[in-house]
Each structure stands twice: as C-alpha cells, then as structure tokens.
Automatic annotation (TrEMBL), chain A:
This is Iron-sulfur cluster assembly 2 homolog, mitochondrial-like. InterPro entries: ATAP (IPR016092), ATAP_core_dom (IPR000361), HesB-like_dom_sf (IPR035903). It comes from the Eukaryota. Pfam families: Fe-S_biosyn. Residues 21-117 form the Core domain. Belongs to the HesB/IscA family.
UniProtKB/TrEMBL annotation, chain B:
This is Transferase CAF17 homolog, mitochondrial isoform X2. It is found in: Mitochondrion. Pfam families: Beta-barrel_CAF17_C, GCV_T. Signal peptide: none annotated.
Amino acid sequence: MIRSKARLTDVSNDSSDSVLLSESCIKRLKKISKNPDDYLRLTVDGGGCSGFQYNFRFENQIKPDDHIIEKEGVKVVVDETSIAFIRGSTIDYHEELIRSTFRVVSNPNAEQGCSCGASFALK
Amino acid sequence: MTLHIVTRLVRCSRQRGSLVGAFSFPFCERQIPLPVTALLSYRHNSQDSSAQSDAGFISQCVEKRGLLRVVGPDAKALLQGLITNDMDCLNVDICPTINNCLYSLILNNQGRVLWDIIIYRLGEDKDKGQNYLLETDKDQVDDVLKHLKKYKLRKKADLFSMSDEMSVWAVASPPNESVTVASNKSHIFLNMDPRAPDLGYRLILASGTQASDVVTNCKVADDPQWYEKLRYRLGVGEGVVNHPPGKCFPLEANADYLNGVSFRKGCYIGQELTARTQHTGAVRKRLMPLTLAENLDEQPEGDAAVANSAGKQVGKLRGVICSLGLALMRIDASEDTSLHIKTSTGRKVGVTASQPSWWNTEGP
C-alpha cells in the first residue's frame, strides 16, 4: 500500500486562487498525461449525500473563464463557478486498497462531508 | 407560461366488496397492489358531523399549502439529489401508473427534516423539458426555492413560485364512489393522495376555482378545519407546524409508512443517517395521533411535553386542533393510559395516543 505524501506546492497563476497541488498529485499527473494539452479538470456540482460533490476528469479544452493551476508541466483547471468552493484547498492523489483517486483535502470552505469524501457541505 | 391540461378520470364499479381491478402505486420503489374499492374508501368518523357523506364528496382548499414549479432538462436530476424519495417513480417509462405524484421530504445535512413536499409530474414542456410542481407550506415556498437554487449550480432548471396562480385542495370520498372531474376545465390536476388512502385525493386548481365546481357531486366542507381534523385523526403530519425544521428524522415523521422514502436510490442530502437508521431498525419515536380529554383553543408552545403517569416526558406535542393532537412519542411509552399535557395555565389535560391503521408494522 503506497502512502502519498501531501507536500504542498502553491503554484497557481492567480495568487488569489491559492489552490494547492500536493506532490503526489503532480507526480501522478506527470505519469498519466500523454500529451501536453491534457489536463485535469476539477468541477464542483450539486449532488451527493452532503449537497455538493467534486468531479475529476481529463480534458483538453480550456474555456475563457477557467482558472489554470500549472506546475512542472502539469495543469489542473477549475471553472469560475467551482473555484469559489475550493479556494484554499489542496488537490491530492491518494492510493489505498479500496481505491486510488484524486481528491480534494483540507477545503477551508467545507464542513462535514460524506464518508467516501466525494461529497461535502458548505460552512 | 402555459401549463399542460391534465385530467384524470377514475372510475370503478359500484359493486361493494368486489375486487374490481388492482392498481399498483409505486409511490416509492415498492409496488403496492391495492383493490380499487380500498383505494377509494373513506373512513367515516361519526364524531365529526362535517364528515357526513350525504353530499358525496367533501373538499376543502388547503390554504396553508403553496406550490412552486421546477422545469428544465435537469429538473429531475436537481430534485433527485435533494429528496428522500425516488424521482424515477414519476417516470412513465419506468412506472406506468395513473398516479403522477410523489410524497417526499427534504432533509438537511444532519439528516433531519426541513420540509415535507408532494411532487406532481406535469406533462413534459416541449420547450423546457421535465416539468414538476412541488407542494409545500405556502410561507416556506421562498425558503424552499432558495434551498433548491443553492444546489442548482450548473443544472438547467427554472424555479419559481406558483402560489398565486394555483391552489391545493383535499377531496375525500365516501366508500365505493367514483370520482369524475369536468374535463373542459383548464388547470386541473387530480391524484390520489400519495400518503395514505384515507386522505382521498389531492386536487390542484387554478386559484379562485372551487373543487365543487369541478368535481361531480362534491361540496366544500362547512367546518373550516375539516381537512386539518381529518389529518390529525389519521395521524398524518404536514408542514412546519407538525415537523418543525431540523427537529425530527424522516422515519420519526413516518415517511416510510407514508411512502415518502426510497431506500434503494442513490445519494441525496441526509441519506447516510436515514439509511443507517433504517438498517439498524432503531426508530424509537414516531409522530402519533392523540385524543385529548377536552377541546383546547390554544396552540401549544413549541415541543410542549407529553408526560406519563410518573411525570416523565415521553413525547413532544407538535400540534393541537380542538380535541385532536399530534405528538412525537416514544413508541414504547405510547400505550400508557395516563398520559397528559399541561396547558399554559399549568392545568393537566389527559391524552391518549394511538397507532394509526396505515402504519405498516409488519415491515416491507
């Protein structure tokens, strides 16, 4: 079982965003991005057992209102609606027996969430 | 905005006691086959003179309840993540049924009831997509809209109040009567009340229309509290008076017996605690009907205590009308014959709690 180290690197373009990427997240993205236009998009949508849920997927289209977080060649993109929910959070990649997944940790805007970590409630 | 005109005619034979046809009502994921005569039966209570059935059907406008509309391609998805019941039960491809409404609750993150709602499926709006009406307390419509808008985010759904244009009516029928509705009237939506058969029908009309104009052989109840008394006698809680927001759990509000919860659908707000309570079987309190030893004029202050013979609190009063009440009672203490409440002057009034017939205590 590999334990990820959540060392924090603040690398956003816009200093007011302050969305952080952990070392394991960067490492994983470097490994799986097949071409330089690929990036990880994080969206917040309604749903899940606490009201809001995180959604990760790979894409290669950037929209005008997107915020881009780039470090060491890997890119994470968050749209305007979602950024408000995750300012100050850390995006991490976590591996354990039950699943290996990208996740949002230490979200200062979020209160309790569901036990699987995919859904959260706002403070 | 134009609403689709939807009318439903329910006919059954007048033969007593015969199983004329079996309808399945998937109010939640259970299919509940019921004989038609039982569906239309109305329990005549001889104590309440306003329930005399010589005029056929009795109706009353439920003034306390209002409506809001949710329409759009993502209307169903928006509601599905916020309610305890399964919107698929309103999907005609999955559940072809004559009933187009669903009882449900909206919970908060801690799994406690915020509002009880009835969702009506209107015909698809060809421009906008899925089309629903939500019934809730009239003075809560704005708060419910705010709640839905908070979680809407990117979903394509329009939300607005319909309380000025439409009103909610309750219609109760004598046994073995068929209900017919004038089909040339617009803005009529008639459904069996999805909660308990004895509640009869729920009718949505354009504001200003009377049910007696639209339903054959129907009169408006003389007693202004006729519907409330019917509900209290049956033990069906409704609105924030009986379910103060944040103060009870869905199973305590009898949502399972009233066909308001689905235990098979995916995540919604408050689901974890609801599912866990169901599976551990630990529902110790429920909303129960009370009979008081005398009429009370005053409404009790919030959560007034129901005490047993030893003076220990075993319940919380959640509404009183004349000599009827509703209280959140500890089930194991509810059979005590010396229960009482205290009025604002400190006087004791005896109460008796009873288990409604529609409680499905044998389990699913």
